[in-house]
Amino acid sequence: MTKIIINSELTCPECGDTKLLEMPTNACQWFYECTACQVLLKPLKGDCCVFCSYGSVPCPPIQQSGSCSGCES
C-alpha cells in the first residue's frame, strides 16, 4: 500500500504566493482564498479540487485510487 501524502504546497496562479497546507483526507477542497492577494482559487476544469489544480501533490482520494468519484466540482 502506498503512503498517502497529506501536505501539499499550494501556489496561487495570480500572485505566485506559496503555502504548505494539510489536505483533507476524506473530501476535496473546492475553494481556497489566497492569503497574500485574496483571490479565490477554484479547481481547473477536469480537476476535482484546488490541490489537484495548484498543489505540488494531488489530493488524497486521487493518490489512493486515481479517481475522485463523488468529489467532482
Descriptive terms for the model:
two-stranded antiparallel ribbon, two-stranded antiparallel sheet, alpha+beta
Describe, in plain words, how this protein is organized in 3D:
The model has no long low-confidence stretch (mean pLDDT 88). Strand 1 (7-11) and strand 2 (18-22) form a beta hairpin. The protein is globular and about 35 Å long. It has one domain. The protein has helices spanning 50-54, 60-65; strands at 7-11, 18-22, 32-33, 40-41. The N and C termini lie far apart (28 Å). The strands form two sheets. It has a two-stranded antiparallel sheet with strand order 1-2. Helices cover 15% and strands 19% of the residues. It is an alpha+beta fold and 73 residues long.
| Elements, N to C (H/E) | EEEEHH
- The strand count comes to 4
Proportion of residues in helical segments: 10-25%
- Unreliable segments of 5+ consecutive residues: none
Q: Please state the CA-atom Rg, rounded to the nearest Å.
A: 12 Å
Distance between the termini: 28 Å
User: In order across it, which strands form the biggest sheet?
Assistant: 1-2
Q: Give the domain tally.
A: 1
Summarize the structure.
The protein is of the alpha+beta class and 73 residues long.
Per-chain topology:
Elements: E1 7-11, E2 18-22, E3 32-33, E4 40-41, H1 50-54, H2 60-65
Antiparallel strand pairs: 1-2, 3-4
